[in-house]
Amino acid sequence: MPSKIWELIREQFTSARMVHGLTRDQVISRVYRTRNRHFGSTIYGRVEVPPLSLTKACDATFFQFYYTYVDGGEVQHIFGWGHPALIRLLSYNQTALYIDGTFHCVPTPFYQCIVVMVHDRGSKCFVPCMYCLTTNKSEWTYWHTLHCVQATTGITMDVGTVSCDFERGLINAVGDQFPEANIIGCLFHFMQAVRRKIQKLHIPGEEVTGMMLRGFLDSLIVIPHDRIDPHGINYVIEKFKSALRKRGTEYSHAKWVEFWAYFRKTW
Q: Based on CB atoms within 10 Å of each CB, which residue in 20, 48, 77, 128 is the most buried?
């Protein structure tokens, strides 16, 4: 921090005699000008040059790309980081990817951090290869992010499967960028999203808990897609109503009709 630099210099050069020099504000202003001259006047330019662009050991480039595009009339930004040794894992044959996004640990002005992980056949673990900060979460954001990840590998990725959230924009982008890959939705994210919607409709808590039990809503993920509506949904509804009757609980018909309309449209 410029103020800490000022305190350090003052402690080193202050003595019993009177010393005439720059004021505190002048020193801080000079620190800001020097930093901007080296890193650039925007936060986007500062990560592109050393030392922030390098790995901790300063032996490789950690910063990989900075992409700008316009979506809905607004300028959007995407940054990508990754260790070269881990990025090479993305170029193996028939890789298994896991793509996830988080919103709770991103700096301003970014909206989310997309993490691209790949299954390492040696350790048999999913290894995070790329970290991407984005200022949006639209389908175009995912499309450009995955395209930049591909470009980082030299367009050498041969993807077998992709596991990701049940988010339409992300699924569409994955399908465009990796058309030969099998897309596997994450059950945890699916159940989490559905639970949030049920609670938003103010369905009684006892019914929410019951629908989340094994054998009810989750049974729809093992039914062939063309059999989910209406056969699979009707099966879940009747089984759920029967379970509620045994407990002496009334089925909130109007609210569940609204939920199943959402389910058909979204999933």
A: 77
Reduced to 3 states, what is the DSSP secondary structure of residue 128?
A: strand
User: Which segments of the chain does DSSP mark as H helices, in order?
Assistant: 2-13, 24-39, 43-46, 84-87, 139-152, 168-177, 187-200, 205-212, 225-227, 233-246, 253-266
Q: Which residues contact 189 (CB under 8 A, 6 or more apart)?
A: 165, 166, 167
Side by side, which strands form the sheet with 63-71?
A: 63-71, 74-81, 125-134, 112-120, 95-102, 159-164, 182-185
Q: Over 90: is that where the pLDDT of 139 sits?
A: yes
Closest CA to 146 of 173, 184, 179, 166: 173
pTM across the whole model: 0.70
Tell me which DSSP letter residue 15 carries.
Answer: -
| DSSP 3-state of 47 | coil
Euclidean distance between CA atoms 25 and 36, whole angstroms = 17
- 159/192 Cα distance (integer angstroms): 27
DSSP per-residue string spanning 195-245: HHHHHHTT--HHHHHHHHSTTSGGGGGGS-HHHIIIIIHHHHHHHHHHHHH
How confident is residue 2, by pLDDT bands cut at 50, 70 and 90? low
Counting every residue written for the chain, the total comes to 267
Which has the closest alpha carbon to 217: 236, 231, 202?
236
> Rounded to whole angstroms, how far apart are CA atoms 171 and 142?
9
- pLDDT > 70? residue 39: no
As to burial, measured by CB atoms within 10 angstroms (0-12 exposed, 13-18 middle, 19+ buried), residue 141 is buried
Rounded Cα–Cα distance for residues 249 and 228 (Å): 26
